[in-house]
Amino acid sequence: MSRNRKTSIEEVISHRLVWVGLVVLVLTALLTILLFRSGYNRQVKEDMSITARVLAAALEEGCAPEELASVEEVRLTLIDPDGTVLYDSASSGEENHLSRPEVQQALETGEGFIQRQSDTVGYNTTYYALALENGDILRLAYQTASTYAIYDSSFPAVIGICLLIMVLALFLSSALSKRIVRPMEEMAHQLDTLTEETVPYRELEPFAQAIHQDYLLRKENEEMRAEFTANVSHELKTPLTSISGYAELLENGMAGPEAGAQFGGKIHKEASRMLALVEDILQLSNLDGKIPGDPTVVRESLDLAELAQDTVQRLTFNAQRAYVTIRVQTSGAPVIGSPKLLDELVYNLVDNAIRYNRPGGTVNVQTGTLDGHSYFQVSDTGIGIPKEEQGRIFERFYRVDKSRSKATGGTGLGLAIVKHIAALHRANITLTSQLGEGTTIRVTF
Predict the structure, then answer these.
(1) C-alpha span between 394 and 399 (Å, rounded)
(2) What confidence tier does 9 reach under pLDDT thresholds 50, 70, 90?
(3) Which CATH superfamily, name and number, covers 300-444?
(4) Three-state DSSP state, 356
(5) Among 350, 339, 337, 335, residue whose Cα is nearest residue 414
(6) Cβ-Cβ contacts under 8 Å for 429 (sequence gap 6 or more)
(7) Above 80 in pLDDT, residue 249?
(8) Strand pairing partners for 357?
């Protein structure tokens, strides 16, 4: 199946830079034209203003308009206040000029300036009118090239410069995008040693931190899976070896009737141990695929006190066989959760307290609420846990006393299951223990 080629960051940056360069180029050209046109018109107005004032001074000195028109290469028009043309160097018509905008401006403000498009393509006629002291209006007219006509002559050069700028923009954007992306590519090859100092850009720090954590988590999960596989193989090998050995003795007829029954009992015991181990492995596998709030987990209102009392009744025989006394002190502890999973959590904790206790010891089971939070607590007077090992007891197959755990039939997965169930219910587990004195585990919801 064909896959669409994804655009790279380098291409995106390069294309965006080219487009930015193109937009900046166009805006710069437009702004330059506007500024040039404004400056050009301002300069024309200033030049005509100076010329008009010089001619006005000459008229006041008695010079005839005809003499002035022959000196300056401009169209000179003299208009009286009612708009009648007194003199026009380019026309002998009698048209009244009172309605002309530049004349109106001059009558109102003392001067007027306007440009009108000429019939000649590419040229404008610029008019400047100045009010004289005697009330007449002196108007000058220049025929000037439009700013657009000025650009016509330089248009090929402008196009050439634009093309050159675009080529340079393509080259520079490609080089710049590669320079920006290269540190990110190098960072991708250093995930195992990624630190804040090795992240090339400040904006990438949260992203890099998330990637680094995900990388470490995946790596840790891979190591845990490998260790789990090795542990499962080891745990299954021992009972399978025993079963195989006893079965071989029975098969060869090397055991009498009494020994056969004994061997059969041992095979049954090892098989039961294997079944318990497989059940715990399947349970852990099922819990691994769930997260808090998982919709596949059926939840309902229940009371931890009722769960505790029911569990104690089921484990009373085990406690008596281990010469352990169970004391129950429960009060209402309502929670919303999975009855099946919470029952397993309570059962595993009480069962562990019995298994790792000592003859004549006690197990105290408590439920209640504290600061509005329901809790379940189990305390024992057993062997206790060394301080340096307390952080590891919830790991899979981790045993404080390996020989004792196997002797009592433990799989080494009970507390790992408890940890997963608590996490699934957003519950917090606290542990306090002293070697040789006992252990207390509290689960707060």
Answers:
(1) 9
(2) low
(3) Histidine kinase-like ATPase, C-terminal domain (3.30.565.10)
(4) coil
(5) 350
(6) 394, 418, 419, 422, 441, 442, 443
(7) no
(8) none
pTM: 0.47
**Which amino acid, residue 286?**
N
- Reported as type and span, the H/E element at residue 321 is helix 304-321
Q: Where are the beta strands (DSSP E) in 100-197?
A: 111-117, 123-131, 137-145
Cα(404)–Cα(412) distance, rounded to whole angstroms? 11
Handedness of CA 35, 38, 41, 46 (dihedral sign): negative
- Tell me the C-alpha to C-alpha distance, in Å, between residue 97 and each of 51, 90, 104, 110: 21, 14, 9, 16
Structure tokens given for 376:
């379940």
* Distance in angstroms (rounded) separating the CA atoms of residues 270 and 274: 6
Beta strands 300-303 and 334-337, pairing class: antiparallel
Is the pLDDT at 325 greater than 80? The verdict is yes
Q: What is the CATH number of domain 9-150?
A: 3.30.450.20
Structure tokens at 131: 């009010």
Bridge partners of 370?
373
d(CA 115, CA 42): 12
C-beta of residue 148 within 8 angstroms of C-beta of residue 93: no
- Assess if CATH 1.10.287.130 describes domain 203-288: yes
